[in-house]
Design a protein that fits this description.
- The structure holds two protein chains of two kinds.
- Helix content of chain A is 64%, strand content 4%.
- By secondary structure, chain A is mainly alpha-helical.
- In chain B, strands 1-2 form a two-stranded antiparallel ribbon.
- In chain B, helix 2 packs antiparallel against helix 3, helix 3 runs parallel beside helix 4 and helix 3 packs antiparallel against helix 5.
- The longest helix of chain B is centred in the first third of the chain and has 36 residues.
- The relative contact order of chain B is 0.11.
- Classes of the chains: A mainly alpha, B mainly alpha.
- Chains A and B meet through helix 1, helix 2, helix 3, helix 4 and strand 1 of A and helix 1, strand 1, helix 3, helix 5 and helix 6 of B.
- Strand 1 of chain A pairs antiparallel with strand 1 of chain B, so a sheet runs across the interface.
């Protein structure tokens, strides 16, 4: 849920100004994510003997995402005539 | 399952990056499909970051062009969501964070698909224009709205198992085989 909330706020800021249609469309994933909270508690907790992973931030992924959004916002901010 | 705060933060940052990246890819595929469909009807357009501007007078629109242009993106979204779902299910047995991309991609594509129907049912924008051109009655639009919401909630309920197993597989070194051995649960 945290990635959804932060990402939606980010998208609202990046895509400003948005129509009502587009704004509501950004909140629709909430209807897919909410049932996860109701359902996930029904599963038992598994314990593993194996050692847990050390998960690191993927800086390459973060940079690629940031670069993609900068290009998207700057280039499409001017608009591209097609056809 | 106990995980440290630092690890949670790393997972959240990676997940946000995948969420945003998958949204951008799904959104751009949707926009380009609409543009290709509009080019078929010789409608010039301008692609902006938040909309597509169709550079024609209102009289240039025909029934067919409206229906094809505003429906083409949704057809591609359906195909994308099916493809992402297949990849998610196939990739459950492998390791790696890339599965998050497909998971969020599936959620984006399915949300955009049903979202456009739900919001279009009461808003004259996007897929709502097609619904209006179909001369759908208000009752039918309401039925579409509530059916769409129920389908989305149903998809959410069906995704619980996949989310649960992905959470286990991502947080521990175990792969699906370990989950099967420890819990006896099959996907």
């Amino acid at each position: 849920m945290i990635p959804f909330v932060i990402s939606t706020l980010f998208l609202l800021a990046v895509k400003y100004p948005l129509s009502l249609y587009e704004t509501l469309l950004l909140f629709i994933p909430l209807f897919v994510l909410l049932p996860l909270y109701w359902g996930i508690g029904r599963y038992p907790v598994f314990y593993f003997e194996e050692a847990e992973k050390s998960i690191q931030i993927s800086f390459r992924l973060v940079l690629v995402t940031a670069a993609a959004y900068i290009i998207y916002r700057v280039v499409l901010g001017f608009g591209i005539n097609i056809g | 399952m106990e995980i440290e705060k630092r690890k949670s933060l790393n997972i959240i940052i990676n997940s946000i990056a995948f969420y945003l990246l998958s949204y951008l890819i799904v959104f751009m595929i949707f926009q380009f499909t609409t543009i290709i469909a509009s080019n078929i009807f010789d409608i010039p357009n301008t692609l902006y970051y938040n909309r597509i501007g169709f550079n024609v007078i209102p009289e240039a629109w025909t029934f067919d062009s409206v229906k094809v242009i505003y429906t083409s993106g949704n057809i591609i979204l359906f195909m994308l969501s099916v493809s992402f779902l297949v990849v998610i299910i196939k990739a459950l047995e492998f390791n790696g964070l890339l599965r998050l991309f497909f998971l969020w991609g599936f959620i984006h594509s399915i949300s955009m698909l049903f979202g456009s129907i739900i919001i279009g049912a009461f808003n004259f924008e996007g897929f709502g224009i097609v619904l209006s051109y179909w001369y759908l009655a208000d009752t039918a639009k309401m039925l579409l709205l509530f059916s769409g919401l129920l389908i989305l909630l149903g998809i959410g309920m069906a995704m619980v198992k996949i989310f649960y197993f992905l959470q286990i597989v991502i947080l521990t070194s175990c792969r699906l085989k370990c989950v099967r051995h420890s819990g006896g649960t099959n996907l």
